Amino acid sequence: MGSGAHLQGRSALLEVDDLTVEFPGIRALDSVHFDILAGEVHALVGENGAGKSTLLKVLGGVHRPSSGEVRLSGEAYHPRRPADALAAGIAVIYQEFNLYPDLTVAENVFSGREPYAKGSRGIRYAEINRRTSELFAVLGVTIDPTATVGSLTVSEQQLVEICKALSVDGRIIVMDEPTAALSADEVTQLLDVVKRLRAEGRSVIYVSHRLDEVFALADRVTVLRDGKHIRTCDIADTDPDGLVRLMVGRDVESVFHRDQVSEGTVVLELTDVNAGRRLKDISLTVRAGEVVGIGGIAGAGQPELSQVIFGALGVDSGTMTLNGEPFRPRHPGDAMARGIGFLHEDRKVAGNLPDLSIRHNLTISILDKVRTGIGRFLAPAKETDVYDGYHRRLNIKATGPDQLIGQLSGGNQQKVLLGRALAPGGRLLLLNEPTRGVDIGAKAEIHRLINILTADGAAVLMVSSDLPELLGVSDRVYVMAGGEIVGHLTGADRTEENVVACATTGRRIFSKELSKR
Amino acid sequence: MTTETIIERTGDKPAKISFGRLWDTWGVTAILILLLLCTPAIAPGFLEVENLQSVLRESAYVGIVAVGMTFAIASGAFDLSVGGQLALTSVVSLMAFSGGGTAAAIAAAIVTGLLCGLVNAGLITRLRVPPFVATLGSLFVFRGIAYLLTQDGPKTLPYSQIHSPFVKLGSLNIAGLPLPFIIMVAVFAGGWILLRRTAIGRRTLAYGSSPSAARFCGISDTRIRLFVFGLVGLTVGIAALTYITRVWTADGSAQDGFELKVIAAVVLGGTALKGGKGTLVGTFSAVFLVSVLNEVLVSRGVESAYQRIVLGCVLIVALTIDGLRTRFAGPGSFRRAITGLIPRKTTQATS
Ligand SMILES: Nc1ncnc2c1ncn2[C@@H]1O[C@H](COP(=O)(O)OP(=O)(O)OP(=O)(O)O)[C@@H](O)[C@H]1O
Ligand SMILES: [Mg+2]
Q1: Which of A201, A301, A357, B211 is the most exposed place for a label (fewest CB within 10 A)?
Q2: What would the mean pLDDT of A494-501 be, rounded to a whole number?
């Protein structure tokens, strides 16, 4: 897929000229040129903080550029607010969701554009519910249009956002990391949808850190680095390594290295744990020095499992032990006091402290360690040291420790939250989607960090919907389906086929080691 | 590629301070200073020492409680019951004074204030009543109890006690500064340290910013509520002491509308209603902005009915700015907030 030849001679639908966007202390876009042809999929790639989302927000009427020119079908296009973009036929799926948690799925999809019954002010619910269901059918998923959005998983919310954009019938569909929160089968469906949109003659701007998607979909690709336009070319004229070099400015080792682990002591053991309707008879062990992966399709109970261990969800029955002692945390604070670190998969709802600076976001779980003097008061200098450490280590792109976390690019927010989870130095780390939205270089660095931590004896329980990551980083993998553990894969059994088989077909595969438990 | 280029590429540029962020902390202070500079022209007697002392003294009770309220609002909650708390605490403290003297009166004020705070925190965390509703209810309950206790007339300080040390609390000047004002400055200083330099203060801001994220940082909402509402109660206790030693009397109707003055000061000061931010510098200036404004009106002979209207308008302006700032958060928010004031044609929903 992905030859640009058929695009030859087509005229540009959207042209961006010399676009500059400035925020206090940073130039997010610096004289960027960019154009979209009718009926092409145009990938936009670059490191975290390169300016991709900023460019899309300008097109969507969220940010106004400091200077520059945008033309749509040859005419000046300067949206002043999101409604202007919609009216011009540009539908944007933003990286951070904009959903009303208390409204239903259908109400969210049609919010602001609800069809009203004749002569009354009543919304035609039957109609929006039906149309929403139809759109989900196109995406190949089943989500109840009458469910409230707050009750959905992150991946379902992402699908609602996608559905919202598709309902607009736009000329240009803009997608900012639509697959960051999706599981493998949902990604496949989405890729098909994008191809269909192109076949219908629409244009798609597609942002992703997953280069396999870029190469499977795009006709052309544009690379941004530090707000500057680096290169636009036909996808056929480049390859993944070349693209990475353009993005990062150097070569990146993207294969996973996992040092051999020696059998450590059992850190965590769950026996027949039940919790609500979400978890059934969960038994698992995690040893010191190990990375244990949890896979499965979204909504199979993976985040709930980690939340039970962290004390954020109650346990109905079963036993848990931590370092051989009975363990029944009633609140995340209990779990943290016992040396457990936690990363939530939902950055916006359960991660960011939006009014706090990056520095304060990083240190919120280690306030005991950044105090000084007889009064044991918080010491800004010590907090800045913590910031400096993670800033360097995870390559967080920020204007300084006092920048608000919400002003960071998505991937950089993720790095801050990962830093927060690691900062207390927990001996058991529950990491949900640790590299969601993170660029290739930082992803490799995070994997290296996990390696170092486990070599030092920490235990990691990692939930990941990114199969190569799940298989590459984990020593063992549990697969969940419908709230149960339906597979335990070790050694040579750790294959994509086995994970998918367990997760979707109801097959159960338990590698030898577990059965002789 | 060498590491050098990479370091250069990610090197920090110094953060430019945006006007919006400056305005958040120093906006009211600037307005206050402007107003003070104008007073010689609009209210000639204002800058006389006696008058200034009286303004500082009168500001103290609102100011002291505004410190507690800043924490409450920063945590994302209101405490509407502070007026009732003040009345009840004052009455109980006066009763304790006639029974046991100065020490008893002080202890009674502090303990009663703290108990009121505990009741509020209990309603919110145990019965799961939203803070707004819980404290609206307890406002009436506290005032009601104060009325019950003063059924046979307001509690007063007997005139014979005019030389007791207790009375000095409200009337003494130290180096020309009224003692209530000094107490208030101390409470502000303590509050600032608590908010900016202690773990519980930081956790309060985190909780106000996002309760769900705070939970996953191990922050217990029960503890935050107990701390915040306990602190409000404590500040009410201290404020009650400066109040009764100034006016010598209290009953159920004492300081009617007190809660609104306090909330007005905090919001005007720049503490966002949605929680997560708190500025005691702003609150401090706003307390004086309100009382200076009031004093200027009084000296111009404006009727008290109009004074209320002015306070109401000031509150509305403060809330409008807060609302706009929340809606237009982000860079250039100030400009957009101002331009947002001018209504645009809204696109009609499809019908
Ligand atoms: N509201 C804002 N205020 C200040 N700076 C901002 C704001 N939004 C973005 N920035 C800055 O602009 C730069 C570009 O951010 P942008 O979100 O466009 O990156 P991105 O390429 O989408 O990265 P990612 O892959 O992490 O999503 C970043 O350095 C970011 O900190
Ligand atoms: Mg982005």
Answers
A1: A201
A2: 88
Question: Could you say which ligand is closest to the alpha carbon of residue A22?
Answer: 1
Q: When comparing pLDDT for A217 and A120, which is higher?
A: A217
Residue A265's CB: how many other CB atoms inside 10 A? 11
Residues of A in contact with B348 (CB under 8 A): none
**Residues in CB range of A252: below 8 A, 6 or more apart:** A244, A440, A441, A444
Contacts of B7 (CB under 8 A, 6+ apart): none
Q: If we measure between CA atoms, which residue out of A240, A208, A234, A212 comes closest to residue A221? A: A234
Give the residue from A149, A210, A150, A219 showing the smallest Cα distance to A182.
A210
Separation between Cα atoms, residue A474 and residue B134, nearest integer Å: 49
pLDDT value at residue B346: 34
**H-state helical runs in A203-331:** 211-217, 240-248, 302-309
A123-171 per-position pLDDT tens digit = 778 888 898 888 888 887 888 888 888 888 888 888 888 888 888 888 8
Indicate the pLDDT class of residue A254, thresholds 50, 70 and 90.
low
| CATH 3.40.50.300 holds for A253-514 | yes
> Helix, strand or coil for residue B184?
helix
Helix (H, G, I), strand (E, B) or coil at A461: strand
Q: Mind listing the pLDDT tens digit for each residue in A408-424?
A: 999 999 999 999 999 99
CATH superfamily of A5-89+170-249: P-loop containing nucleotide triphosphate hydrolases (3.40.50.300)
Q: What token pair was written down for A449?
A: 């960090």
Quickly tell me which residue has 């960011």 as its tokens: A352
Query: Residue whose CA is closest, atom 1 of ligand 1?
Result: A407
Residues 6+ apart with CB under 8 A from B329: none
| pLDDT tens, position by position, A26-63 | 899 999 999 999 889 999 999 999 999 999 999 998 88
> How many Cβ atoms from other residues are within 10 Å of residue B171's Cβ?
13
What protein residues have CB closer than 5 angstroms to ion ligand 2? A 53, 95, 409-410
User: CB burial class (10 A; 0-12, 13-18, 19+) of residue B156?
Assistant: middle
The 10s digit of each residue's pLDDT in A59-89 is: 998 888 989 999 988 888 988 888 888 888 8
Residues of chain B with pLDDT under 50: 1-16, 330-351
Residue A401 pLDDT level (bands cut at 50, 70, 90): very high
Region(s) of chain A under CATH 3.40.50.300? 5-89+170-249, 253-514
Q: Which residues line ligand 1 (CB under 6 A)?
A: A 23, 26, 28, 46, 48-54, 95, 397, 407-412, 439; B 330-331
Tokens of B254: 């004492």
Q: Does the beta-carbon distance from A399 to B6 stay under 8 Å?
A: no
The CATH code for residues B15-338 is 1.10.3470
Q: Which of B17, B194, B216, B222 to mutate to test the interface with A (most CBs of A within 10 A)?
A: B216
Residue with tokens 């994302």: B76
A336 reaches B (C-beta below 8 A): yes
Beta strand segments in B64-143, E: none
